[in-house]
Every structure is written in C-alpha cells, then in structure tokens.
Predict the structure.
Amino acid sequence: MSWTTEQQPLRIRARDGSEVDLQLAFNFESIELGPVTHDRLVPGAFVSVAAAPGTGGSLRALAVVLHFRDLSESSEGQQAWDLAPASTLIHATIGGIDAQRTSRTLTLRYAGGEKTVVVGDDVPVAAMLGGGHIRMSPGAHVFITATRQRDGTLTAGRIYYGKDGYTPPL
C-alpha cells in the first residue's frame, strides 16, 4: 500500500512513539537522503550540522546533511535542536576543513556568525539525492519540517525520506 498526496492527513510515528497527523502544504517538497562518505565534506558545500557541546567549548557533530542546492537564503544560521540535550542545528557553508586521523574540523560560516565543529569518523553524513513529489510507503523513515497552525494542526513544508530504508540522521 502506498500513500499519495491526495490522502490527507499523513499520519507519522514520532521519535517518542506517539502518532502525529500532518497536513501537507500546497507547495511541499520531498527530498531523498542517502549515506555518503566524509570525503564529500568540502569547502564551499552547504550543510546542516546537528551538534552538541564538546570539550573545551568546542562543538561535536552528531550528524551532517549535505544539501544539493544552496538553501542559505531561507535557513542559514543556528537554532536549538532536539537530537540530544543542549544540541543545535547549524545551516552554513563549509569555509575550511582541518582533517585529522579520526576526525575533521569544519569551519562553518553563515550570515552573522562562524562556528567550528569536530566531525568524528563515526558521525553519519547524508546527502540530498533528489526530490519531487513521491509515493511513500508505510514504514518509510522520514524527517519532516512542519509548522503548527493557529488551529493546532501541523502543516509539513518539507519531507526528507531515506533511500532504500535509510534512516535520516537528523
């Protein structure tokens, strides 16, 4: 059984196990994500990095997503995130890389700021592989950005789904 955009709402199971109904925005996007190697992290690439406080005031990456297009106009910057306690999500361009034996230190640049984040070899790195309206099947792993409406309903503007059963790391 497949799900199509004509079927509203979309019911998802959240990370905590609860079920949530989502309406889809008229202009929603769906984007396929898949795992890639760390050598795809290069200066000039636009990324989203979930990070937690590290040692000595540094940031330690929890997950990295490479974008296939520059989304900096709408999402560049840093915000609180719920992947781990005190975590943040940074949308930025990689300005520089210092590669060590078991990690890479990324200098992330965004309007009004710059952060340094250590990306260990064990940190998942995913890339946007394609997009467009899709046919999702029950059980697909997704990451969804949504907005709560005044009436309490949630409207999804973007759905990231894992390629071939992959679980998006954010």
Observations:
- The CA atoms of residues 141 and 167 lie 5 Å apart.
